[in-house]
Amino acid sequence: MNTFDEIVAADRRVEPRDDMPDGYRRTMVRQIAQHAHSEIIGMQPEGDWITRAPSLRRKAILLAKVQDEAGHGLYLYSAAETLGVERTDLTERLISGRQKYSSIFNYPALSYADVGVIGWLVDGAAICNQVPLCRSSYGPYARAMIRICKEESFHQRQGYELLMTMMRGTRAQQEAVQNAVDRWWWPSLMMFGPPDADSPNTAQSMAWKIKRHTNDELRQRFVDMTVPQADRLGVRLPDPELRWNAERGHHDFGTPDWDELRRVISGGGHCNAERIERRRAAHENGAWVREAAEAYAAKHGRERRAA
Ligand SMILES: [Fe+2]
Ligand SMILES: [Fe+2]
């Protein structure tokens, strides 16, 4: 038998049947649920473009990507259930506004270039956040993350490839890409959360080895990774303070508008009400499917017991 502290100290995984501190369990439920909600709500901005994809090829790619996000949500709800919570309860917390999802999905996707920029920047930021989570201390979460990260890298590449194609196209297409980059750049940087100085839970999450890097470290990694990709693409990142700092060996960059992040998280973004309303409608419209599945399972359970 190993205690929780020994497992964490030895860098092994905590499994559902292991004893764990209440605070660890609560933190994991909250983090995994918020992550699951983000995957599911994250289907909406791009899902809006499936019927308007410019070609059959683009439609097939986008459909696959949006379906992947649904799958990510389902793995993660399953991982949360190993901690003793119910998916229906978590969904209830989401649509009643008691549990959050990533603020990024409260921004609208205004053109098809947004599909490319979301893949490149939003899925790119998600990869930076999630690759270290493959070594997170909670076993079911870490294992879910390995598969999710493989699919996220497809998402990032399809976005970048779409943007490459548009940047080789007409002037109007190039402008649409630049316009989308201008709108998504700062919200993407906010995906890493508030600055370390305002992130009171980081120290505990790092001590429990849930998190491996701080918000600011991951944000820096994302900026360093993205700048050369922007150069190759031929787009300008909308930050006058962005420049290489040879002394630090990193790019310096400006400060995101943290008031905007607080406003969007607390419900004041462009699309908060619309996103939740659609999720609620989908949940209510799906009630008969859940009831039918339960009736079917109950009937077969009775038959099996009788046999
Ligand atoms: Fe995802
Ligand atoms: Fe993704």
Describe this structure in words.
This protein is mainly α. It is 66% helix and 2% strand. It is built from 13 helices and 2 strands, in the order H-H-H-H-H-H-H-H-H-H-E-E-H-H-H. It has helices at residues 4-9, 22-41, 43-47, 56-81, 87-95, 112-130, 139-167, 171-190, 202-207, 215-233, 258-268, 272-285, 287-306; strands at residues 243-245, 250-252. The chain has a two-stranded antiparallel ribbon with strand order 1-2. Strand 1 and strand 2 form a beta hairpin. Helix 6 runs antiparallel to helix 10 (215-233). The two termini are 40 Å apart. 36% of the residues are buried. The model has no long low-confidence stretch (mean pLDDT 95). Residues 69, 123, 126, 152, 155 line the site of one fe (ii) ion.
How would you concisely characterize the structure shown here?
With 307 residues, this protein is an all-alpha fold.
The secondary structure category is mainly alpha
Shape: globular
The number of E-state strands comes to 2
Percent strand equals: under 5%
Helix content: 55-70%
Main pleated-sheet profile: 2 strands, antiparallel
Number of helices: 13
- Largest sheet strand order: 1-2
String of helices and strands:
HHHHHHHHHHEEHHH
Bound molecules: fe (ii) ion
Rg over CA atoms = 21 Å
Runs with pLDDT <50, length 5+? none
User: What is the terminal separation in angstroms?
Assistant: 40 Å
Protein name: 1,2-phenylacetyl-CoA epoxidase subunit A
Organism: Nonomuraea longicatena
